[in-house]
Amino acid sequence: MAPADASSLPPYGQQRAQPPVQMPVAVPVQPNAFMLMIHWLWDSFTHPSRLQRIPSWWPIVPIALNALVIASTTYAMLSHQYRSMSNLTQGINSFFSDIESSYSVATSIPVTQLFKTAVLMLVLEYAVILMTYAGIRIMGDTSVTFSALHQEIGQKLTTLLAPNLMALVSALIGLNALAIFLLTVSMLFILVLPAARLAVASNHRKLDRTWMWGLTTLLAGVAIAVIVLILIIGGAAEAIGSLF
């Protein structure tokens, strides 16, 4: 299990102090902050369990990227479906051209829906982090800070960029079945994160850790399920309302 806190580690990308030498040596050039973050993203993708000492806002990047890619994939799939619906509607209208009707179906989904979906996904991801943190505190483990857990889960979510990008490409070329499968795998990974993290959390309560894990996982799961239902119902209602 990775350490819960990386504050004792040297800053990511910083060279360790070298022993004094007699001959003059060139001062190593440190990469800029942007390149350091790119290198950290790659390190997080290849070694998601290896924590580094990084700025506290860096984990927001993979979390936000996943939300944006998932929203873009959903938008691409829905756009294909509504384009097909529009073609069907136009065909029916042309067949019954003698029937006048003021009813029409939107030919495209507003781009604002993409950003709204991205925000909803971002809310879901942070709900997972908050529920996990609450579960750890319920088990009595005060050694894990929210910042450390934020980084830990952010690094693990970096690995989801691969299947999510594959899902986006699949949706863009019309392979909706493959895109849905990849998105389902990605969502399942996100939703089981609290249970997986709580399984290795330290239990400082009198109740057996198996019972504590079960109770905290159940509470986190119920809370996340309620949030998911609210997001789905609210998002679906708004999407339907924007089409007509």
Automatic annotation (TrEMBL):
It comes from the Bacteria. Pfam families: DUF6574 (PF20214). The chain crosses the membrane at residues 57-78, 118-136, 165-193, 213-237. Keywords: Membrane, Transmembrane, Transmembrane helix. This is Yip1 domain-containing protein. It comes from Bifidobacterium crudilactis.
